[in-house]
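User: I'm preparing a small set of examples for a lab meeting where we compare how different chains pack in three dimensions. I only have the primary sequence for this one, and I'd like the structure in token form so I can line it up with the others. Please keep the answer compact; I'll paste it straight into my notes.
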Amino acid sequence: MNWEMITGTIAGYLWALPLVILALTSGFIFSFRMKLPQVRKIKDMVKYLVKGKESKEGISSFQGFAMTLGGRIGIGNIAGVATAIFYGGPGAIFWMWVIAFIGAGSALAESTLGNVYKTKIGGEYRGGPAFYIEKGLKMPVFAIIFAVVSIISNAVTGPTIQAYNVAESFKNAWGIDSVITAVLLTAIFALIALGGMKRMGKFAQYVVPFMAFAYIIIAIIVLIANISKIGEMFKLIFSCAFNLNAVFGAIWGQSFMWGVKRGIFSNEAGFGTGAHAAASAEVSHPVKQGLAQSFSVYIDTLLVCTATGIMILSTGMYNVLDESGTGFIVENLKGVDHGVGYTQAAIDSLLPGIGSGFVAVAVFFFTLTTLLAFAFNTDAGMSYILRNKSRKTQKIAINIMLAAMAVIIFFGSMTSTTVAWNIADMGTAILAWVNLTAIILLSPKVIRIFKDYDKQRKMGLDPVFEPEKIGIENAELWNDIVKEKYSDLVILKQEAEKKEAEKENK
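Assistant: Understood. Below is the structure token output for the 506-residue chain.
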């Protein structure tokens, strides 16, 4: 059987123009209905990341952010950018920026909803799209569909491309056999994942910032070394993006589609994956974590993806496929598969002997944190489906699923790049279709919750969430959370509201 053709055809149908339109529509709705919070609230985003604290029930805002960022920073930022350039040319980078900015609105919405409708399972906060679909939309069948799709996407289809690129980068750097890499990656994943939510959160908290920082530093070194080419590079990106470049004019449509496609794959805004980690965070108001999570989109695409694009384009270490799919418009790397090899070649061109090894290490850790985020999301999906079962039964089922995921990681290391990408795209597309539909239907509630937060901030308050007072049903856990942990904020809010009412009556 021709698996490349079969998986490619299915992925092509799922990732057609309607999904792109749906993603853009969702981003526009939330961005403009909330008056561009991705611009207005950047200060708040950073503040909550720094000040958030964990509790026995939940992780800190930063841990939730790191877990989400761990899921977002990975193969999509390194191999995904290279793939976008391969199929769509340099202009694809611009469309990745656009979808990141617009998608930040969707990321804020889904993460806010995740925290609004969270519940407590086994003494820990759990939540995500399945929970807000059931409680917010009152559509339990739709919720089960998402939970099943989420498990398949995170535990079955998602790990394949991650594992493959680790194996490929190790082979390029040191000639290590894929089987050895598969054993190493699988063993470390199992060791951390089976330790539960807290262990995964702690690992992401320390590893993700360090690796992201190191990767950006290397990109800056490459940028400085090629400083004379930067103006030309950005001119190339913009001219290709707006169909002003004769060389790449024939693939302008591809530039747009692949930029959006790989941008969404990279930042995951609209997939609902960030909502799982957001739901587990300890905050006084859901929008706080929504803002913290949406900041990860900027880090992911505007920093890490741009860093990769700069390294590849400024060094000229890339190929671009022509419109027929049989030849090349640009072929600077003969015999190099589109993926991590482009980034390795880019760094090696300036730092011989360093690039391949550094990228391999970066890919390994980025992939590991991504796989742990997948495990976290799988845990959330299984917890929802088995929420009426005992915690012991849940843990057994979750561990079985994680064991199956480890097997997929092992065998995914030895597949082909095209099949791996197609399988990953199939899973993410289905996730996006279901979740984007859900958050658009829930948009009136998201807007109401955000306005409540915004009103309190304008009053100079530390916002606290009282769902019934703004007409939000089925968020019962918040009554207990506020009563136990944030009663002082409620008192301050009541006093401020009283003063405001007195002013209006005068």
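A couple of notes for your slides: The chain has two domains: 3-457, 476-506. The two ends are 79 Å apart (CA to CA).

User: Perfect, thanks.
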